[in-house]
């Protein structure tokens, strides 16, 4: 309980130090391996930009849609009830004004076996665009909340990717990265569901491949430069 409280306090403190909007980030990808040809590989890094004054309402409504406190779209799409909830979540997001921002790299280089280079390239493009803002879509974002990965070495890589951008003056010093779990911030469900919906346009031809249509008007694709 003490650990959970401390993690929750870190998120709350980050919000206190932030004005304006917050971006929530998650990814979906297919790395090259013995069973996947390079032409079928991809990396999707997604952000959903949320106004601070909308956070509480979004958290409440997402909980109502899911009817619970845990969500992972990939697992949900395996069952009919989960597919219904996924569609409802996307419909709900599509009714709002939250910008969905996607950096998409295809294919992943054949030597990038863990897709970490693709992740770095997508994160750089995404963070630069989020921190700069786009007129009429979102204001410059100060706080990027990323779903943390389970292994420390991967979390360190994500931290380094952000520090490099600051050192290179590609993003301002006040643009901060916070890695945390959906357990402490369910708004991370938003980029999870958007990433999964876009992934389905690449990997499936069933009814789930059209779910992305529900939010497409809110999506801004970032140009890949690295």
Q: What would your notes on this structure say?
A:
The protein is of the alpha/beta class. It has a single domain, classed as Nucleotidyltransferase, domain 5, CATH 3.30.420.10. The chain is 42% helix and 18% strand. The longest helix has 17 residues, at 116-132. The protein is globular. The N and C termini lie far apart (42 Å).
Shape: globular
Tally of discrete structural domains:
1
CATH architecture assignment name: 2-Layer Sandwich
Level-1 CATH class name: Alpha Beta
What is the tally of helical segments?
7
Read across the widest sheet, the strand sequence of neighbours is 5-4-1-2-3-6
Which blocks of ≥5 consecutive residues have pLDDT under 50? none
Spatial extent as radius of gyration: 17 Å
CATH topology: Nucleotidyltransferase, domain 5
* DSSP E strands, number: 6
Main sheet specs: 6 strands, mixed
Helix amount: 40-55%
What is the mean pLDDT?
A: 94
Q: What structural category characterises the helix and strand content?
A: alpha/beta
Distance, first to last CA: 42 Å
Seen as an oligomer or otherwise, the chain set is: single chain
In the CATH hierarchy, what is the superfamily?
A: Ribonuclease H-like superfamily/Ribonuclease H
Percent of sequence in beta strands = 15-25%
Order of helices and strands: HEEHHHEHEHEHE
């Amino acid at each position: 309980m003490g650990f959970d409280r401390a993690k929750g306090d870190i998120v709350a403190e980050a919000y206190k130090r932030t004005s304006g909007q917050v971006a929530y980030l998650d990814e979906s990808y297919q790395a090259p391996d013995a069973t996947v040809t390079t032409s079928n590989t991809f990396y999707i890094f997604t952000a959903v930009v949320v106004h601070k004054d909308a956070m509480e309402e979004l958290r409440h409504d997402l909980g109502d849609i899911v009817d619970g406190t845990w969500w992972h779209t990939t697992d949900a799409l395996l069952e009919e009830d989960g597919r219904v909830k996924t569609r409802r979540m996307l419909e709900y997001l599509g009714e709002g004004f939250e910008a969905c921002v996607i950096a998409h790299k295809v294919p992943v280089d054949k030597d990038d076996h863990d897709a970490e280079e693709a992740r770095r390239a997508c994160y750089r493009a995404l963070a630069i665009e989020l921190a700069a803002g786009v007129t009429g879509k979102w204001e410059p974002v100060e706080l990027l909340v990323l779903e943390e990965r389970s292994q420390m070495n991967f979390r360190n890589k994500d931290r380094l990717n952000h520090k490099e951008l600051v050192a290179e003056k590609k993003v301002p010093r006040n643009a901060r990265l916070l890695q945390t779990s959906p357990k402490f911030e369910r708004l991370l469900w938003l980029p999870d569901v958007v990433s999964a919906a876009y992934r389905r346009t690449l990997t499936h031809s069933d009814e789930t491949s059209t779910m992305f249509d529900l939010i497409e008007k809110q999506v801004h694709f970032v140009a890949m430069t690295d």
